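Deviations from the work plan: none for this task. Representative record:
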Amino acid sequence: MSPQLTDCRDLIIHAIAKQKVLIVAGNCTVNYEGRAASKLTWGERVLMIKADGSVLVHRRSGYEPVNWQPPKCQFRVSLDNGKLLSVLATRQKPKESLRLLFDKVTMAVALSLADEGEFAMHVTEEQMKRAIMLDPSLVEPGLKLISEETRMGESGFTDVYAEDARGCLVVIEIKRNPASPEAALQLNRYVETLRKRANRPVRGILTAPELRSGTSTLLARLGYDYKAVSPERCFQILKPRTDARLSEFLQ
Amino acid sequence: MSPQLTDCRDLIIHAIAKQKVLIVAGNCTVNYEGRAASKLTWGERVLMIKADGSVLVHRRSGYEPVNWQPPKCQFRVSLDNGKLLSVLATRQKPKESLRLLFDKVTMAVALSLADEGEFAMHVTEEQMKRAIMLDPSLVEPGLKLISEETRMGESGFTDVYAEDARGCLVVIEIKRNPASPEAALQLNRYVETLRKRANRPVRGILTAPELRSGTSTLLARLGYDYKAVSPERCFQILKPRTDARLSEFLQ
DNA sequence: CCTTTCAGTTAGTTA
DNA sequence: TAACTAAGTGAAAGG
């Protein structure tokens, strides 16, 4: 009836054995049981089994797979009655299983991806904050951290509170990208808020790799300071704490 | 030189326009810039662009895509110098972009997935809550439900309010997975909140399949009780009451 | 191996 | 739309 299902079964078995990347598109149902349980009725989806034994089942929409299995699971592939192609992916700890049944396969391919490429993630704003908290002298000598997470009422979470050499309170606003005047206003809001509650002088410092036009002027008019801090410099601070792959990056 | 890249460009443009599911395998680099920034050097990967405009770039291993873009992003596809196929996926809010450059394409396919299937997940935390509300004796004999949806101001929605045999108010915090100390603290917040408003004793009960280390101690120190409740037991309760689709499942 | 924390989290729900 | 929280979260780091 469906001779291609036989071919497909063989292809899948071969792909898994050879640790290739398998992609199958076809009409299927999916059943999951384990940490929770789910059932997906018939429809066309894309199945991907990767070299490390991870499984993804994608529908036509959505970033996330509708069903999946983390790496290192074991497989059993069979053709039931010659009409239903069954792919079973099981995992211990937690014990869970994912089962697909195909009655039609549109496309099936096993790829040997040659990929020695290096992946490098650059510093995020949050990491810049972490770096500055690890070494406040990045911003100014003699600066001392006050609290790790003095989160103010509203939005911004990249602000840090410190005390300078003279005992002034300091609010530090951190930007990863060239700072626009908007950043100066944001800093201003934090400083104003703090001034209402603190009975001593409060300074504001904006740190960013650079300033966009108009920001410097506004910053000066508001009476705040600017300190250039680059993502690269922050990376230097974080480097010892980060993994090898990451440290490779900034060469 | 690479006439197939021309075909591939056309295929991609067509697939995106027609909201098909596109799968391309080939040698590429990937650059991301937005909330963070990343660079992936040359290697063979699988690109998937789904009907809703989400993008996934998969390497040979790993459950997660090495790079991606959430749904609803916009595309620009071009063939530079006839030798480099460029796929650019951009998004506003947050402003970010993902760019792939292919110099070789192994496989490219555009799929029209017909998928009206229904997805159903069983025995989630929410369902455990429903089970306990249907049969509060799962937690303690003599327990009576106070209200179906006494949602407190803040976070958690898996808490249930009841009255015990002696007339004490009871807050029940439900976890589907082994509960960590965090769960005890969460329960504590709910109890504290209720105590401010209720002029009579308030108890707290944490229900979960089991407790992680430290949770029992913390729970005792806070003065709350623990009752083991498994997802399986809850399912027994829900089983007769579940809808047709759901009941099909456990056959 | 277990536990905790982070994530370019994503996704869903409510105000 | 923004804020908040759960997730079959997954992945990494630390004890």
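The mean pLDDT of chain B is 88.
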